[in-house]
Amino acid sequence: MSTLYIRLPSKAAADSALHWITLACPFALVSHGEAIEREGVTPLSDLSETVAKAQRVVLLLAASDVTLLRLQVPPLSPSRLRAALPHLVEDQLMSDPAECIVVAGPATDGLRTIAVVNRGWLEILTKTVRTFGARNIVAVPAQLCLPHQSGAVSAAVNGQDANLDLTLRLSEQDGIGLPIMPEKPESAVHDVVQAICALVPKSPVTLYVPQPELRSYQDKVEAMSALEQRITVYADNWSRWIAGAKHAALNLMAGTDTGAGSKTDWRAWRWPVALASAALLINIIGLNIDWLRMKREADALRAAMTQTYRATYPSETVIVDPIAQMHHKIAAAQHEAGQVAPDDFTALAASFAEAWGNMAQAPDRKNGVPGIAALEYRDRSLIVRLKADGALPTDQMKAALAARNLSLSQPTTGVWQIRSAK
């Protein structure tokens, strides 16, 4: 998954610029194998194509725009904690908490790191990036992306000329930022060093600066003998920021209406969805064609049966079910001709009597057969009610009746129901 990292300008720099989207932003595009494919400094407006191609966009918010607080927070569920955070930090903010996004990090040493950022500014940034085609957005404080050194302070300078951002990481969970706007471009280096001296009066400082300005900062530090042993200047590179962003526990997008900022990448599924839709459409069309063909065959077959029935019985005017009506006519004709139907009472009773007599005379029937209490003919079946004076030879009777094309079922104890199997 390719990831695009962007270090954004501060809100102060954006407010002072005519068009903030034209301010230069350092960026780095990282491939699936964690290798940096592209990096550089360009206005955010020129990154639209790169943003659209990246599966994930990580915004490094200027440290001066994000306030970090260390507070003791009561144990609450995530939803309750999110609702309570604005009230917990209200006394430590100069602005209205309702205008801010407040996000809490994991608890360490009984305290939580609380990040606060202006809601309107973050929404402008994320909306701009989304219009470029970003689907998964993460926003982290830049100060927590600097390397952490125990007993020392890490600092970095971002920006150009009159709009500089100074970022400092004071400890593992704390960091600050300061926008620096020098009166003259040539005094920018001096102003940055002086600001570091004021913010970090004693601790050693590792300062990361853009590669083209490395010599200028080193010369300035060497010229100030009091700082020569305390400030060390190195060229900045994206490897440090990427490693720090991966381990940053605070994602400010969690406080926005879009949650963590993830959005399903439907473009990756467009071809599978298109193929599945095409296959479904072809199957639906095939099923409808097959149904129409079978319906035509059924209509033709019914028309042929109706025609045959009309030709056989021309006096019939009402034809609802030609098959059932034909069976009825044939059965009536057989009855009038003296033929007995397999399911008539006479045929069923005769076959049952024959099977019953043969079973009664069988040598293995030492105790005889049960007595018959009643015979009943109903729904083209013979109902035999037996007396409860012995074991019922149901299995033997089933075999005997099966040889005569009859079936036997036992709906209740002591009752047999005999039907024609034809």
Task: Give an account of the 3D structure.
It is a single chain. The protein is an alpha+beta fold and 422 residues long. It has three domains: 3-263, Nucleotidyltransferase, domain 5 (2-Layer Sandwich), CATH 3.30.420; 270-336; 345-420, Gyrase A, domain 2, CATH 3.30.1360. 36% of the residues lie in helices and 26% in strands. The protein has eleven helices and 17 strands. The chain has helices at 11-16, 48-53, 78-89, 119-131, 188-199, 214-223, 238-247, 270-312, 322-336, 345-360, 394-402; strands at residues 3-7, 24-30, 36-43, 56-61, 66-71, 100-108, 111-118, 137-141, 153-160, 163-169, 175-180, 205-209, 231-235, 372-378, 381-386, 406-409, 415-420. The strands form four sheets. Strands 3-2-1-4-8 form a five-stranded mixed β-sheet, sandwiched between helices. Strands 11-10-9-12-13 form a five-stranded mixed β-sheet, covered by helices on one side. A hairpin with a 5-residue loop joins strand 10 and strand 11. It is elongated, with a radius of gyration of 46 Å. The protein starts with a strand and ends with a strand.
Can you tell me the CATH architecture of the largest domain? 2-Layer Sandwich
The strand count comes to 17
Strand fraction equals: 25-35%
> Class by helix and strand content?
alpha+beta
